[in-house]
Amino acid sequence: MHIRRSMKSVKILIALFLAGSATQAFGQKKFKGKPIEFGITLGAANYMGDLSKLVAINETHPMGGLICRFNYSDFITLRGTAVYSRLSGKDENYSDDAFRNRRNLSFRSPLIEFSGTIEYNILGFGETQRATPASPYIFIGVGVFKYNPKAQFKYNGNPDLANDITGATPIHHPDLQKFDNEWIELQPLGTEGQETTKFNERKRYALTQLSIPLGIGYKKQFDDFWAWGIEFGVRKTFTDYLDDISLDYVDEQIVEGNNGRLAAAMRDRSAEKGFVKFDNGMSRGTSKANDWYMFLNFTLTRKLVGGKQVCFQF
After folding, report:
1. E strand or H helix at 265, and its extent?
2. Considering the domain boundaries, does residue 198 fall inside one?
3. Quick check: 71 and 107 in contact, CB under 8 A?
4. How many domains is the chain partitioned into structurally?
5. What are the two backbone dihedrals, phi and then psi, of residue 25, each rounded to the nearest 5 degrees?
6. Distance (Å, rounded) from C-alpha 191 to C-alpha 252?
7. 21 within domain boundaries
8. How far apart are CA 230 and CA 121, in angstroms?
9. How far is 168 from 229, CA to CA, in rounded Å?
10. CATH code for position 141
11. What digits encode the pLDDT tens for the residues 21-45?
12. pTM (predicted TM-score)
């Protein structure tokens, strides 16, 4: 009799346990811990340097990349990002500026960036719609980027902009005609006398550089898996040569003797608009501040792995 009662009690306990387990499984949140998120980022890029006055809107270019986040805590998120975009600038944007109009320099460059940043979630970020599903944040980190400034060579100048030349009047040596309208890599040319005998202390700038990403953003969960965000970030660089411009005009013969006629032609492009070339030693740019670039972008991420499972709180 006692054995039957005991067996019955055991069965009841097992049934209650299974029922409780089923209820728990049904009521679990799919992500409550600190999972890893993966997604995309899309937006726009621009630059600030010797060929811009603050930001030239018409030099804005699309950017896109991949993003991975690890929510270390409600307030700290670790993030890795890989981005591709393009940067550009030209004096032609400021034709009312006499110096820029005469200087007539320009550039464009591909941009590849890999960065690691720390996001500080100002309100905390609970990762589900039932906790703290949204928060503004600030971020800072370190990045490495690769670029390669180029400019388009104009053998006959630009007749639409010139003061006193025509499109039929070559302004460069005939040997350079084969480069007409080509986009020329500027770093190998040493346009400011880099590594010439007289200016040997001027080293060619590296095409892979470090940066410091920093900025602000806002992110929000729209379900337990997906989150979207928007952010604005700038990149402090340690180079003044994103646009190949920094110092002064170096003697044309020195540049040509070291790197050829094309280098001499690309160092001073004022003649393409009918102006007299700049004298040696005249300012070509300013080295008082390094160049910057920036992104305004959206993010879309999805939780993939990790995270503890817990019951709902009733």
Report:
1. helix 261-267
2. yes
3. no
4. 1
5. -60, -40
6. 9
7. no
8. 13
9. 53
10. 2.40.160.20
11. 443 444 344 445 577 999 999 999 9
12. 0.82
